[in-house]
Write a structure and sequence with these properties.
By secondary structure, this protein is an alpha+beta fold. Helices cover 49% and strands 11% of the residues.
């Protein structure tokens, strides 16, 4: 996959959280800017590029902004990574990191993080009583670890306005995963605890994100990449396929 104009990219997922084990995939996430002229045609450019081996997801700048404004946990972590996990940083990428708090809002963070955690729980309980194959057990443990991570990180973001990507005490997450792999219902008390904690806590985030900051940044991106003479013939239609 060849994608130009990458603004920000880094290692995310289990490696970033400190939960990776031998054989774990290394996931990468980033965002890129489509040539501004390519946005003016009948068929817009492709908004996401996803590959495996290596595992990499790249979102176009506008799509990344929409997802981040909606509280999407996966894209949000890109602008909160530890410095050493960034592989591509540009001035516009640094600007985005600088306005990362403007994408946050109390309701959307709560709904997104708890929503994703609830999805993980449904995957767990849908697998029965734990008497399944070794491979399914491993996947169940993984989903349980991410359920705990989503609850913990989401609550931190909701209450402090900050997101710590690397988890404290990774061993406790792995132990929780094994516990839930043996008995999926063991995840329910943790989920219920965080649901109550969100409901009972006054968060540090505003009710609505500051879309003006995202809009201003995106317009700077469009201005920077407005070079009509550099857009190849047929670019938009080829990208749309």
């Amino acid at each position: 996959m060849t994608v130009t104009n990458i603004l920000l990219s880094g290692v995310v997922g289990s490696t970033a959280y400190g939960l990776a084990r031998e054989g774990s995939d290394v996931d990468r996430l980033g965002l890129f800017a489509a040539p501004t002229e390519a946005l003016h045609g009948l068929h817009g450019p492709k908004e996401s590029h996803v590959t495996t081996a290596p595992d990499r997801t790249l979102h176009e700048a506008a799509k990344w902004c929409r997802l981040a404004l909606g509280g999407n946990p996966t894209v949000t972590e890109l602008v909160w990574l530890p410095e050493e996990l960034y592989e591509v940083r540009t001035p516009l990428g640094d600007e985005l990191i600088g306005i990362r708090s403007s994408f946050l809002s109390a309701r959307r963070v709560r709904d997104a993080y708890l929503g994703y955690a609830t999805q993980q729980f449904r995957k767990l309980v849908g697998r029965g009583d734990g008497s399944f194959s070794a491979d399914t057990r491993r996947r169940t443990a993984k989903h349980a670890r991410h359920l705990k991570r989503l609850c913990t990180q989401g609550y931190e973001l909701y209450t402090t306005g900050r997101l710590t990507i690397r988890v404290d005490d990774p061993g406790s997450y792995h132990a929780f995963g094994e516990q839930v792999a043996a008995d999926p219902s063991a995840a329910l008390p943790l989920l219920r605890h965080f649901e109550a904690a969100f409901d009972e806590t006054r968060g540090a985030l505003p009710e609505q994100p500051d879309e003006r900051a995202a809009e201003a940044w995106l317009r700077r991106v469009r201005q920077h990449f407005y070079t009509p003479e550099a857009v190849p013939a047929g670019y938009a239609s080829a990208q749309a396929r």
